[in-house]
Amino acid sequence: QTPLVESGGGLVQPGGSLALSCTIAESISKRYFMGWFRQAPGKEREFVAVINWNGHTRHYGDSMKGRFTITRDNGKKSVYLQMTSLKPEDSATYYCVAGNFNDSPSDPGQYETWGQGTQVTVSS
């Protein structure tokens, strides 16, 4: 069974909003850092957001600040990404990630578990 399963991707118009969800398997500790990365075709993998186990610490990539919000619900074993004011350059496959510690949030090597990804397309 896939330990991280993303959902909620789709087509949205520029300026619109979209919410992504990630369902977390029981094999992933509630204490894990949870986050999101994204990657567009032909582009480098990009850090989106991360949240610690109790939600007290959150970090965002520079282009996401003020537009994206990461939250988690440990009771539901889920992490979410609320995206607003979407731009065409936000189009990418978004990956849910998990790691047991984090001293460099933007480093993909900090995350030991990756989901399959969900596609987000921002276009008019």
What Rg do the Cα atoms give? 13 Å
Major sheet description: 7 strands, mixed
How far apart lie the N and C ends?
Answer: 36 Å
Mean pLDDT: 96
The run of helices and strands is EEEEEEEEEEE
Low-confidence stretches: none
Question: Percent of residues in beta strands?
Answer: over 45%
State the shape: globular
Helical segment count: 0
The secondary structure category is mainly beta
In short:
This protein is 0% helix and 46% strand. The chain is mostly beta strands and 124 residues long.
Q: How is this structure best described in words?
A:
- By secondary structure, the chain is mainly beta.
- It is 0% helix and 46% strand.
- It has no helices and 11 strands.
- The strands form 2 sheets. Strands 2, 4, 5, 6, 9, 10 and 11 form a 7-stranded mixed beta sheet that branches.
- Strand 7 (68-73) and strand 8 (78-83) form a beta hairpin.
- It is globular.
- The mean pLDDT is 96.
Key features?
124 residues; mainly beta; 7-stranded mixed β-sheet; 4-stranded antiparallel β-sheet; 11 strands; 0% helix; globular
Helix-strand blueprint:
Blueprint: E1 4-7, E2 10-12, E3 18-24, E4 33-39, E5 46-51, E6 58-60, E7 68-73, E8 78-83, E9 92-99, E10 113-114, E11 118-122
Parallel strand pairs: 2-11
Antiparallel strand pairs: 1-3, 3-8, 4-5, 4-9, 5-6, 7-8, 9-10, 9-11
